[in-house]
Amino acid sequence: MTNRTSTGKSKDRPGSVRREAKWGEVSSWLDDWLAIEPDGSVTAFSGKVELGTGVRTALAQIVAEELDVPLERVQMVMGDTARTPDEGYTAGSMTISGSGTALRRAAAAARGAMLEMAAKRLEVNINELSVQDGAITLVQSPERSVTYAELMGGKPFNLQVEDQFPQKSPSTYRVVGTSTPREDLPRKVSGQSSFIQDVQVPGMVHGRLVRPPSAAAQLLEIDENSVKDVPGLIRVVQRGNFIGAVAAREEQAIQAARQLQVKWQESALYPRMQDLFTALRSQPTQDSVLVEQGDFEKAFAKAARQIHATYAQPYHAHASIGPSCAVAEVVGDQVTVWASTPGPYPLSGALAQLLELPVENVHLIHVEGAGSYGQNGSDDAAADAVILAQGTGRPVRVQWTRKDEFVWEPKSPAMVMEVHGGLDSQGNVVAWDYHVWSPSHVARARFAGQLVTTQLLTGQPAPQARFSFGAERNAPTNYGFSTQRVTVHYVPDSYLRASSFRSLGGSENTFANESFIDELAAAAGVDPVEYRLRYLADPRERAVLNAAAEKAGWVPRLARHLSETELTEGRGVAFARYENDQAIVACIANVQVNRKTGVVRVKRVVVAHDCGLIINPDGVKNQIEGNVIQSLSRALKEEVQFDEFRITSVDWQTYPILKFSEVPEVEIVLINRPDQPAVGAGEPSTVTTAAAVANAVFDAAGVRLRQIPFTPERVRTALLEQGQR
Amino acid sequence: MSDEIVLIVNGKPHKAQANPETPLLYVLRNELGLTGPQFGCGEEMCGACMVLIGNKARQSCRLAISEVGRSRITTLEGLIEKGELHPVQRAFIDEQAAQCGYCLNGMIIRITALLWKNPHPSDKQIRESLDGNLCRCGSHPRILRAVQRAEALLSALEEE
After folding, report:
1. What's the mean per-residue pLDDT of chain A?
2. How many Å lie between the alpha carbon of A258 and the closest alpha carbon of chain B?
3. What is the distance of C-alpha A24 from the center of its chain?
């Protein structure tokens, strides 16, 4: 958070932020993106937010590069509805391609405009000038120069960005493409206030929630006498099923929330866990055929071999390491909210709707939270804070408990994938038919009704998704099968509340696609890398798969699983192009399977990665490492537990994640393509891990794991069934 | 007040205003404004709230201030000496060992305690020592490299 005011920004002049702008429609006014401060430093404004990926540093690199100013003189202001453009949600690995591109264009325009001014002032031609460290100099006589600050310091450009000035050629880059250290780490390693949990506002008091035990529970009785002895208690705010305790001190709010006697009426909501996938598939679905090439039925009927497989993934929790937190202040009809939301503008709209206020009255200031990887509880916590602030007339900080986060955050929805493949007598794929059943992956809090807080206040369940999204991601492969069909079956009822989690359906679809092509390769008796290469035409895609194979020391052979020993080792590969046209990833995993215990130990993971032009190589590596480990955790361990009433994964014991002793070596090959657009690296390498591991288990032990997570119990069962065959 | 509690935090005494059963974490964060230790789970399952009590890494989210007594409490902030980052903190910057950084406090505190006790731990000892510290972003490989770098920085200091 910064208190520094920028001179380049004002609400009442042309180019100031237009709040009524449609979501996703970004401003073309230069002053909305950049300001040259009187001291010559640069303030850059991005409507995107830092979600712990280091994108603040990457965006600053882009601005520093294009403007020719030292990186340390660029200050980023991000995700503030009073100061930054509206760039919707920070999601989908699109910050570099979206905000990065906009800032690059803006910086190029600013540089060009200042070069024109300098030429006029020095009475020379632009081509006689050079720019260095924020100063424009006459090449012939360097003593004649003018700085950005002298030209612009404190003044607006009043200019629309229309690509009237050229951008730098990537071959001349000096800042972009380097592993610039993250600007936030010195703060964070020394404990300086960095997170939403650290925000302090004068007069701030503390809130804790008393949530119902389950999503459909109705309040029967609340006994406020039960907390009357709690010191410091300011008020118990109860509206509908929403209850929160506000106290002067945090520990007092905790005590009140624990002590408050409340009775709820619960009702059954969910199928039994063992029936989940059947239940999902039995709902009436909304189907769309994404790919239809050739006549599948005909080709499949003629195939020499017909192979079928069904894969499944349960609900996963984002499981942010820091539970959601927010601070809100309501003064008259003016609302200020500090929140770690991924979408400051959309959330300000939803909160305005909740409070029945004009959107201009809600000032949303993003402050970093713990990593969220999509939509965790942050938007809901913001609404909770607003209601508690409104109910007490005080600025309130609300901190969710670990259990609040596990129970109430939206989950990555459960999915079922079914694939049918036909091979000819030579083992070639002659027919491919892919089906996925999935609830929508996106239920962002664009509207008040999508916030848990609103649902508790009104007793109304979340509105049915207006559109379904996310299950189609990476449902089609990039393999050039002659005959193929890809169908998405949208399931209307998710049971557990679901919304965006890193890559949406990309992980599940790639798990199924890349497991199945491995099954076909084995059936065809072909090395799995070679088999994939048969169907990849794009040279960049082939290069990525080959690079991973080379780094991993992949020697072509058939899956073997000959070893009958207790410990057996294997390797597996998976490949994907994220969203079919974004970053390209190949992953090779080496695993050890303990036949007796069923424990799968992943020892080494190699990833080759092409995301076009690389802005910050170490930043990309950091994202890949994180993707590999988080997706490995999901593949090996994670499954949200529930009974017919409640979510029962409520802490780290009931929702375990990968620990240090289980973390593999991760080796990365980055393929830089300076001539290609920079595409996101926040998600792509999350999609390939599960299939690479499952394929490696097949190589090691001869069993196919088709349901995530690959728990020891599931592996033992698979081995047992194999023994019985 | 008979049950007045004085804590020794980062070398300085602090007279606690909270009740004796209040977990140390809230006193550090809210009375002393120390934002290094973080609330992660409140159940001693994740390590985000770690502080050093004497030379030992302890989770502070359930540790009542009445149990701390006169033991020296050192937080992430207290590792900084005369404006200089502790070698373990430096190692985390050198290795860029974080994504969101929320777990960093616990990691740095745990590693500092580990390297005091065992200046040259094996890979297995490091991983086992860190098993109680959860990281959701997957910064583990970098954190493991940061331990090695911290070990080297500390050894170099010893030799000086």
Report:
1. 93
2. 13
3. 17
DSSP 8-state class, residue B31: I
Residue B136 has pLDDT above 80, yes or no: yes
Q: Which residue, among A59, A250, A611, has the nearest Cα to B17 in the 3D structure?
A: A250
Contact call for B35 and A657, based on CB within 8 A: no
CATH of B6-78, one of 3.10.20.30, 3.40.50.1000, 3.40.50.970, 3.20.20.80: 3.10.20.30
pLDDT tens column, A565-588:
899 999 999 999 999 999 999 999
Task: Name residues 327-386 of chain A within 8 A of B (Cβ).
Answer: 368-371, 373
pLDDT over 80 (residue A5): no
| Contact present, A453 and A460 (Cβ < 8 Å) | no
Residue spans in chain B of domains classed CATH 3.10.20.30: 6-78
Q: Who among A184, A188, A625 is closest to B138 (CB)?
A: A625
The pLDDT confidence band at residue A85, using thresholds 50, 70 and 90, is: very high
Q: Model ipTM?
A: 0.97
Q: Is 0.80 topped by the overall pTM? A: yes
Q: Which two tokens mark A589?
A: 């995993």
- Is residue A652 less than 8 Å (CB to CB) from chain B? yes
- Under CATH, what is the fold of the domain A201-266+318-408? Aldehyde Oxidoreductase; domain 4 (3.30.365)
Whether residue A660 lies within 8 A of chain B, CB to CB, comes out as: yes
Q: Where are the domains of chain A?
A: 30-175, 201-266+318-408, 499-724
CATH code, B87-159? 1.10.150.120
Contact partners, residue A481, CB within 8 Å, separation at least 6: A293, A429, A431, A432, A535
The percent of residues in chain B predicted with pLDDT above 70, rounded, is 98
* Integer Cα distance of A69 and A276 in angstroms: 56
Residues of chain B with CATH 1.10.150.120: 87-159
Q: Which stretches of A79-223 are assigned E, i.e. beta strand? A: 129-132, 135-138, 145-147, 205-209, 218-223
Nearest to A519 by CA among A574, A468, A556, A569: A574
Q: Which residues of B touch A51 (CB under 8 A)?
A: 100
- Note the CATH number of domain A499-724: 3.30.365.10
Q: Shortest CB distance from B96 goes to which of A197, A622, A630?
A: A622
Task: Render pLDDT for B1-43 as a digit per residue (tens, 0 to 9).
Answer: 446 899 999 999 999 999 999 999 999 999 999 999 999 999 9
The answer to whether A30-175 and A201-266+318-408 have equal CATH topology is yes
Look at domain A30-175 and name its CATH class.
alpha beta
CA distance A188 to chain B (A): 7
- pLDDT value at B77 more than 60: yes
